[in-house]
Design brief:
The chain is of the alpha/beta class. It has a single domain (8-333), classed as Alpha-Beta Barrel (TIM Barrel), CATH 3.20.20. Helices cover 37% and strands 15% of the residues. The chain is built from 13 helices and 10 strands. It has helices at 8-11, 16-24, 59-71, 91-100, 116-125, 138-145, 149-169, 189-198, 217-227, 238-243, 295-300, 302-310, 323-330; strands at residues 31-35, 76-80, 104-109, 128-132, 174-181, 203-208, 233-236, 264-267, 272-274, 286-289. The chain has a 10-stranded mixed β-sheet with strand order 7-6-5-4-3-2-1-8-9-10. Helix 4 (91-100) runs parallel beside helix 5. The longest helix has 21 residues, at 149-169. The model has no long low-confidence stretch (mean pLDDT 89). One of its GO terms (molecular function) is iron-sulfur cluster binding. Keywords: Iron, Iron-sulfur, Metal-binding, S-adenosyl-L-methionine. It comes from Helicobacter didelphidarum.
Length: 342
């Protein structure tokens, strides 16, 4: 079982062939976030999905997406949202198609809809599975997910059930539970870790609410010293937390182009492609409609270059998904004095 170190600034450099494509505007795509549906049975007040409409990929559209990803030599697919992936009637079918197409699959879910048959399919086919609990108490769960104490208890039971299924099947899937940090949630961090560890998850993951700059590294270090062992890890987007000190929306990013949009994309539940997961349904970030073009045609077309040249990175969320490897990729275009003298 291998747990993600969230070191995307290093990961991007492992794909030398994709970097070569980057200079030639072709098959750069490495990871795709796929929204099977915009439907969700949670009521998160701060939801960043698109469940204001009920768009949902049809079975035929799922098949088309998988073929498109395969033709682009895409490496990883994150089933996310949008809405809640397990609400899609084609959730199991999508997993089987993606697996057969050689895609590595990850799943982000609220975890409330799990049944034993789903547990087995997830455990046998996915690389990682993260349940977004984001609370260490029913009171916080109500604030963050808009759901009752009974739903909190059910999700905790589902976490325990999945851990048992994983163990029974001898699955190597990396299974963890996520927590979004902010000034509102910080006091629940330790109780969250206890709940997750006691129910058999491999790891507890901390990541910031988009735009929130609360520094939790001292608390993380304390929790790691207290609760980590050979079977349980506490992980976090450390590169984001370390960069947060003194950071504001107007802070200098160190780059002015979103190079990452060529390597990481989003296919939404209405069968459209977007430059950024933070801007699903934004006209400025719209790359193409899969009803009209293939993914490869979109990547070769004029629109993707237009979006790339027009995105104003200074207006993007601080520490966005692409930030760390944008910083890395930007170094490829630096004007370096005496670069021949290594």
């Amino acid at each position: 079982m291998k747990i993600n170190n969230f070191n995307s600034s290093e990961k991007i450099l492992q794909y030398t062939n994709k970097l070569d494509y980057f200079f030639n505007a072709h098959k750069t795509l490495i990871v795709t976030e796929l929204d099977l549906t915009n439907k969700c049975n949670h009521r998160c007040p701060g939801c960043c999905g698109n469940n204001e409409n009920n768009a949902e990929l049809s079975k035929k559209q799922v098949e088309s997406v998988v073929e498109n990803l395969k033709s682009m030599d895409n490496k990883g697919v994150i089933l996310s949202g949008g809405g809640e992936p397990t609400c899609s009637p084609h959730f199991e079918y999508a997993i089987k198609l993606l697996k057969n197409a050689g895609q590595n699959i990850g799943l982000n879910s609220h975890g409330m809809n799990l049944k034993e048959n789903l547990n087995e399919i997830i455990a046998e086919n996915l690389e990682y599975f993260r349940i977004s609990l984001d609370a260490g108490s029913p009171e916080m769960y109500l604030k963050i997910h808009g759901m009752k104490e009974s739903h909190f208890s059910k999700t905790l039971q589902n976490i325990e059930n999945f851990a048992k299924t994983k163990q029974r099947l001898g699955s190597k899937i990396s299974f963890g539970v996520g927590f979004l940090t902010s000034s509102i949630t910080q006091n629940d961090m330790e109780s969250f870790v206890k709940l997750v560890k006691d129910r058999g998850a491999d790891f507890a993951q901390f990541r910031p609410f988009t735009g929130d700059t609360l520094d939790i590294i001292p608390k993380l270090d304390e929790l790691k010293a207290k609760y980590e062992d050979e079977h349980f890890k506490i992980v976090a987007s450390y590169q984001k937390y370390k960069e947060m000190v003194g950071l504001t929306q107007n802070s200098e990013r160190g780059y002015d182009k979103c190079h990452g949009m060529f390597f990481s994309t989003v296919i939404s539940a209405d069968f459209k492609v977007w430059a950024c997961l933070h801007y699903r349904q934004s006209d400025k970030h719209f790359l193409g409609d899969l009803r009209e073009q293939s993914l490869e045609e979109i990547w070769r077309g004029a629109r993707i270059k237009e979006v790339y040249n027009n995105i104003d990175c200074s207006k993007c969320p601080i520490l966005c998904r692409n930030d760390s490897f944008n910083r890395t990729l930007d170094k490829l275009s630096l004007d370096i004095t005496n670069k021949e003298f290594l």
